[in-house]
Design brief:
The chain has about 375 residues and is mainly β. Helices cover about 0% and strands about 30% of the residues.
Length: about 375
């Protein structure tokens, strides 16, 4: 037959059921559930060797032969289905289906049933095929010797029906672009920020290689010990609430700090100068790392004090030069030991005008004097 006549619902016409189902298929193009919650399969309560099938609709296209059309089925209450006794040795996979039985094509029944099609036990089982005129609702992993079926054993296989009604002017699907996740082509579609690559307002995230520009951005709740705003001198220009460089965390322009495990490439260090013109001088802590110029026409006595009064660090060095005619003698106060290659090791002297020498504290209150000494 090439043209079904009379057409559906013609006045005073007589219509076979198949023609009406073909009319329905003009609306429902494929087998599938109508409404996302329809005919969902879940564990029974209490759990056991059974499952529950929820109420709802489905469109089922006849597959027993061509041109059977679409059957619309409806389950008006939850149905409990039993699971056949599991194999004691091997697992199997069962399939839950809704099946239309139409005696016009085969058999003696005219109805729709919910059934569990038992799979074949095997070491690596596979699910049985979906019967003709059926919609697959779920598969069930039945373990060897199982006594209960839980939701963890149930895999949803339902698909949503598609329609032949044109969707012109409507949105048929939403795809998540870069920085988003989610999307879909049916039901309620949700897009979410993909926080793995996109910053949002509430998620704790680490920003790398980002520049905050313009003058109207607000950063709040930032501890000075963990965040630094700097224009090279320690503050952001024009900011009403400036944050200084935290001392002890970041090296500032004027901070006095000790650098540990730092490499200085081609450093330029300018010696501080302490000019002394008296005939006696006791070194001070600030002389460490400086050049003390000693200039007088008469002999000059330089004394290194006890560490208990001037706490030089081990490794401290004091550079000295005889600028005048007066010879310079270096000695330690009582309790301080000085050694040198001088004629008198404990009291080395400069050899001549412009001779230089350096005193280095090798351990607490022990000093080595070296240089142009006699």
């Amino acid at each position: 037959m090439t043209l079904r006549t009379p057409p559906s619902w013609l006045q005073n016409g007589s219509h076979p059921a198949e023609n009406d189902r073909l009319t329905t298929q003009a609306l429902w193009a494929t087998t599938g559930i109508i409404n996302s919650s329809s005919l969902a399969v879940t564990e029974n309560s209490p759990t056991g060797l059974s499952v529950r099938v929820a109420s709802g609709w489905a469109a089922i296209l006849g597959t027993e032969q061509s041109n059977m059309g679409a059957y619309v089925v409806y389950n008006d209450a939850t149905v409990t289905l039993g699971i056949t006794t599991p194999d004691v040795t091997n697992p199997r996979i069962d399939r839950v289906v809704a099946t239309v039985r139409d005696a016009y094509y085969s058999g003696a029944n005219n109805d729709v049933i919910l059934q569990v099609v038992a799979g074949t036990p095997a070491g690596s089982p596979v699910a049985p095929a979906t019967p003709d005129n059926s919609i697959s609702l779920a598969t069930i992993a039945v373990a060897a010797g199982a006594t209960v079926i839980t939701n963890a054993n149930i895999t949803d296989t339902r698909v949503t029906v598609t329609t032949n009604i044109p969707e012109s002017g409507d949105i048929s699907s939403v795809t998540a672009g870069n920085g988003l996740s989610g999307g879909g082509s049916s039901g309620a579609v949700t897009l979410s920020i993909n926080t793995a690559i996109t910053a949002d307002l509430s998620t704790a995230q680490t920003l790398t290689n980002k520049t905050i520009s313009a003058d109207n951005n607000t950063l709040s709740g930032i501890a000075a010990s963990s965040f630094v705003l700097s224009n090279g001198s320690g503050n952001i220009d024009g900011s009403a609430a400036q944050k200084a460089i935290p001392s002890g965390v970041v090296v500032g322009d004027t901070d006095t700090q000790t650098l540990t495990n730092k490499s200085l490439t081609s450093p330029k260090i300018n010696l501080g100068i302490n000019a002394v013109t008296s005939t006696t001088y006791t070194t001070v802590l600030d002389d460490n790392g400086k050049l003390v110029t000693l200039s007088n026409g008469s002999a000059i006595a330089v004394t290194i004090p006890l560490n208990s009064s001037v706490a030089y660090p081990v490794g401290a060095q004091i550079n000295m030069v005889q600028l005048g005619a007066g010879q310079v003698t270096v000695a330690g106060t009582s309790g301080v030991t000085v050694v040198s290659t001088g004629a008198t090791a404990a009291t080395p002297k400069t050899r001549a005008q412009y001779s230089t020498l350096t005193a280095v504290q090798t351990s607490t209150d022990n000093w080595l004097v070296m240089g142009d000494i006699s």
